[in-house]
Amino acid sequence: TPAQTVRFIDPPRVEECTVTLVFPDYTQLPSRVVPLQRIVGVVGTKAQLHFRLNHGLVSGAISGPEGEIQTVPPNVSEFDFEVELTEGTTRYSMAGRDAEALALKPAEWKVRGVPDSPPTAKIEAPAENLRITKLAEIPLDIRVADDYGIAEAGIVLTINGKEHRLVHRTFPDGKPRRVRLEYRLELERFGVEVNANVRLHAY
Question: How far apart are CA 172 and CA 192, in angstroms?
Answer without folding.
Answer: 35
